[in-house]
Amino acid sequence: MQGTRSRRLLRAVLGASLGGKADALLSPGPLLIVANHPGAIAPLLVSAVLPIDAVVVVAPRAARHPACKLWLRGAHVLVAEMSEALTVRRLARLINQGRNVVVFPENGPVRTGALGKLYEAPAIVAARTGATVVPINIRYGSPGANGKLRHGSVLSVGTPGRIELAPGLAARERRRQAGVQLLSLMQCAALEARPRRTLFGAFLDAVEQQGRRTPIVEDIRQIEESYGTVLKVTLALARLLQPRTREREVVGVLLPNTVAAVGTLFGLSAAARVPAILNYSSGPDAVRSSVAAAGIKTVVTSRRFVEMARLERLLRALDGCSIHYLEDLRSQLGWRDKLWLAGWALWRPRSIERASDPDALAIVLFTSGSEGKPKGVGMSHDGVLANMAQLAAAIDFNENDKFLNALPMYHTYGLIACTLMPLVYGTKLFLYTNPLHYRIIPEIAYSRKCTYLFGTSTFLGHYARQARALDFATVRYVISGGEKLNPEVQRLYQERFGLRVFEGYGATECGPAISLGTPQRNRAGTVGAFLAGVEFRLTAVPGIAQGGVLHVRSPNLMLGYLLPDRPGELQPPASELGPGWYCMGDVVEIDDQGFVRVVGRLKRFAKVAGEMVALELVERLARECSPEHQHAATIATATERGETTVLFTTDAALDRMKLHQAARSLGAQDLAVAREIVHVASLPVLGNGKTDYVRLTDMVAARLQTQRDDAPNPMGRVVNDN
To answer: Do 75 and 151 belong to one domain?
Structure first.
């Protein structure tokens, strides 16, 4: 069935099409075509759409599929195991004969949604022969249709490349490096294969693929809502909010993690409005600054939420904004609206979408304010969906999984990775309203059989200490982000629950992740490797020998900042490397295997006795001495002696002698020992779980003001602030 007529018939039957950079398949060969294997008939799909003749290599278990057996009778097929050493020689022989070869490095169907284990044989063959590697990403109808054949499957051709290895490597290292390069090519192909659409369009795709009766999301009301119910809420709110706002207006959203909040976000998106998620835990001044930066004139909230969260004072800070309560909007849904909803919108939901440009502003979030006033961060539709695609290419989740998200939606991690992504990819979701309920959240994980748990290191540590032995029995992934992962938290999950905690790294400006540790790519003490499509460069910092300042450019990067002095005007990202680059503000090291280790914030280096000292190292010494307590370091500036370091700790027994011992055991310089130790009952934290360093800096400044006349103590000062 390799003839042109046979391929046309097969394409018609399967409804498959070829997309992406298809011209790469017509480049001079021989080509080594590598494809993911989301289902048993993947070899048929590739054979149907390829415009060239090629030998298709099929694993024995895939060859036993009934449809494949019929196709094998006339096809140019090689049945071989990717795990066998002989396969490398057989593939290399075909390439050297000038034949194009199609291989499936996963060695059989993988229905998890992400790439499975990749066998290095194809990569070794490409390195030996110099063949051009052309990746193909097969998508069965939708990103969330993992393993399910649907008419209209798309095979997207990614950017071709070559596997190049340094000479003189040992055999094991050659295989490892070749495999990493192959994984990168295939993950980039998955990213490039993402459909260009709006957030509302992506949600509608999920509704169509998963079915309206499919349960998808549950909140504290303990009612598992279906896609159809969420769609109904979305369309109703789009109808009600459209006449009360202007097209492309930035609309403030002040809501907790609920189905109503999800419907509000998608409803505003459908009506071509831009939801701006306000941080209700940051206080009136920060919210007032956020509203000014984004040019917000309208805010959507809930009377019940305002009352329960005691936000009356915060609402008074929104003086000048038009406030719309969901309870009032519901009562204003008239019979004409209900007729429109039942008779038209629910039947033709795509017809009501006003937004159509994937590159337009989709969502406004705000920086945490951990280092100053919050700034508005504008994300495009495609930027948000690109980060979902990057994460989906790195970790496996599908309709059999269930996310537990207690992180607030005003946090980019809580919104994009933990709320919108499962809804778009067909994975069930439980939304909880308060990440501080440390006893309740493990119970939810147990009772709802959740498989994914998300949180900051601080929150995850509290959950582990409060959880019973079986509370996380069904959890497969624990992912930490938003702050550096405490090694003690990692140890707790490993010892008590047998779980590894994978650490992600990013920023609000990156929506939210640029690197992530995964089962395939993980190393202790790092934040994993960069996600697909992330370009990076390091710039040197005078006085810092290890690493450099990280700059990134990526499809998930923000459109720009919204600042209070230029309200409503996007300031596109730019760094010293030029427009389109964003400076992460972190000093990082990248090893020869691509793993990223964050040394510390550039702003969080102190110049002590002429040397640059990372405050992260100051905190690390404290964690080494007292892993079960919380510690945070900041800088004190005294004019007569320059900068000194101050350590805040909840361990009343911690002193400088213990810190010196830790420094010697870790081989750290004595300058990394905090000059002053302040004992506190607890550390101030922001609503997203990060340490509030602005508050700590203010506390140090106030303390210095009262100590101006004190003589300096050469041995340091220990203060009990309990």
So the answer is: yes
Q: What is the DSSP string of 446-500?
A: HHTT--EEEE-HHHHHHHHHH--TTTTTT--EEEE-SSPPPHHHHHHHHHHH--P
pLDDT in tens, 425-460: 999 999 999 999 999 999 999 999 999 999 999 999
Same domain, yes or no, for 208 and 357?
yes
Q: Are 381 and 359 in contact (CB under 8 A)?
A: yes
Cα dist. 403→165, 448, 691, 701 in Å? Answer: 39, 10, 25, 42
**Owning domain of residue 712:** 609-720
Query: Is there a single domain that holds both residue 187 and residue 205?
Result: no
Of these residues, 37, 324, 462, 679, which one is catalytic? Answer: 37
Q: From 434, 462, 493, give the residue that closes a domain.
A: 434
Name the phi and psi angles at 11, rounded to 5: -65, -40
Helix (H, G, I), strand (E, B) or coil at 702: helix
Q: Is the dihedral of CA 425, 426, 427, 431 positive or negative?
A: positive
Do 377 and 300 fall into the same domain? yes
- Residue 199 backbone class (left: φ over 0; alpha: ψ -120 to 50; beta: rest): alpha
Q: Is 37 a catalytic residue?
A: yes
Does residue 470 belong to any structural domain of this protein?
Answer: no
- pLDDT digits over 508-556, tens only? 999 889 999 999 999 999 999 999 999 999 999 887 878 899 999 999 9
> Which among 142, 159, 192 is the end of a domain?
192
Question: pTM of the predicted model, to two decimals?
Answer: 0.87
Asked if residue 471 is part of any domain, the answer here is no
Summarize the chain as % helix, strand, coil (round to 5): 35, 25, 40
Evaluate if residue 391 carries a pLDDT over 90.
yes
Domain containing 675 — which CATH number? 3.30.300.30
